[in-house]
Amino acid sequence: MRKRNPLVVGLDVGTYKIGVIVAELTESGVEITGIGTAVSRGLKKGVVVNIDATVESIRRAVDEAELMAGCEIRSVTAGVAGCHLKGVNMHGVVAVKSREVGPGDVERVIDTARAIPLPADREVLHVLPQEFIVDDQDGIKEPVGMAGVRLEARVHIVTGSISTGQNLVKCCNRAGLHVRDVLGGPLAAAEAVLTPEERELGVALVDLGAGTTSVSVVHAGALRHTAVLPVGGGHVTNDLAAALRTPFGEAERLKQRHGSAVVQTASVEQTIEVAGLGGRSPYLLSRRALADVIEPRAEEMLLLVKREIERAGCDGLLTSGVVLTGGGATLAGLTELADHVFHVPVRLGVPLHLTGLVDAVASPMYSTAVGLVLHGLRQQSSGAARSGDGVRGQIGVVRQRMVEWLREFF
Ligand SMILES: Nc1ncnc2c1ncn2[C@@H]1O[C@H](COP(=O)(O)OP(=O)(O)OP(=O)(O)O)[C@@H](O)[C@H]1O
Ligand SMILES: [Mg+2]
Questions:
Q1: Domain-located, residue 246
Q2: What span, in angstroms and rounded, lies between the C-alpha atoms of 213 and 186?
Q3: Is 93 part of any domain?
């Protein structure tokens, strides 16, 4: 019997669903051994608003994953989401004392760059180096060993609300789980679906959830911008429920089965039955009428994303275009609509480079959970339970003290 590696578990606590993925690193790559999903109750716009309901939802998803993977889940890598997550680009400079850049200089320059004034209720979650500059030479990924007298670092810093992170960890703990690490959801999704070429050439990853839409711009192998917008697939469902005078559950079913984000391609002849509100009799509606409600809201969400990218000055960085992921991206016709909005190539992003139960996770809905697993596996294989453990050149590089800090708190 082959020796089994320790399992790593990713826990995505979303507004719509809780996703749990269990994986193991094998000779053939990352093998998915278990999946658990549960309807999420207790979150609003990606943030915990009801602890008990969230704990129960987490437990249900974890139980399902345990059953499938045939293991007991004790610790997880969890994703923190919500509009409180913000990315900012910073810059630091230090003098190189021994005229050759050492690991200590790199740590010092990153510490200098991350020293941003923050309100008492916010915390730095991740510090991600973009490039180093030694004297006048820019574009350096690994400066250690280079000769020079001056070292500069450009970094992307993701900050978030302390109490939101604490509530997430609290829910996991109450569900009997130890949190090994907390990662910003947008970073996790990017980890799971982007190809190395896209990261290098420049791409915007748009994760359309139920209550939030996150935008991450990656260029030259580094994160350039992160933002989370308070819109998502749930708004489309709300619009449908209101416009068609039907219960939310029915609006959700209609959207998933018959909805389209492009009015032109929706049939006028094809009719569907819509349940009425409060015991009123059902009535018939064309698919075109459904799309008439969906398209404007979907377009509005994509325009908000576009504006966010432009506002951050990143619209010139998208050589590889836009990748849509998250459950909201599975809306029929959305990629096509996004093509018209962004005027760059758009594709649907699903988790990549996996083995095992690949089909079961081959959905944009699992991008964040898979990204969390990949991050957890990387941490495990590099033995990086230390904080600030140097520069390794990709997303999730310099680990921050959040986990240690949260452990201290609870
Ligand atoms: N087949 C489908 N067609 C259209 N929309 C869909 C489909 N399947 C799921 N969705 C939508 O995807 C959204 C859920 O996506 P996802 O699971 O990524 O959200 P989440 O991670 O729970 O939420 P958030 O990231 O906002 O906290 C819901 O709004 C749901 O309506
Ligand atoms: Mg999500």
A1: yes
A2: 9
A3: yes
Radius of gyration, alpha carbons of the chain: 22
Q: How far apart are CA 306 and CA 341, in angstroms?
A: 8
Split into its structural domains, the chain has a count of 2
| Ligand 1 atom closest to residue 237's alpha carbon, by position in its atom list | 31
Question: Which of 244, 261, 288 delimits the end of a domain?
Answer: 288
Nearest residue to 373 (alpha-carbon basis) of 360, 354, 392: 354
Confidence (pTM): 0.92
- Low pLDDT (below 50) residues in the chain: 384-410
Q: Of 161, 189, 223, which one is at a domain's C-terminal end?
A: 161
Residues with CB under 6 A from ligand 1: 14-17, 40, 46, 81, 209-212, 232-234, 237, 252, 255-256, 259, 326-328, 330-331, 365
pLDDT, tens digit, 9 for 90 and up, residues 360-370: 899 999 999 99
Tell me the CATH number at 118.
Answer: 3.30.1490.110
Q: Give the per-residue pLDDT at 27.
A: 86
Residue range 51-94, pLDDT digits in tens: 999 999 999 999 999 999 999 999 999 999 999 999 999 999 99
DSSP 203-215: EEEEEE-SS-EEE
Residues of the domain holding 136: 86-161
Looking at the domain assignment, is residue 101 inside a domain? yes
Please choose from 13, 15, 57 the residue to mutate so as to test ligand 1's pocket, defined by most ligand atoms within 8 A of CB.
Answer: 15
Query: By the 8 A CB rule, do 240 and 293 touch?
Result: yes
Predicted confidence (pLDDT) per residue in 254-263, tens digit: 999 999 999 9
User: Does residue 334 lie in a domain region?
Assistant: no
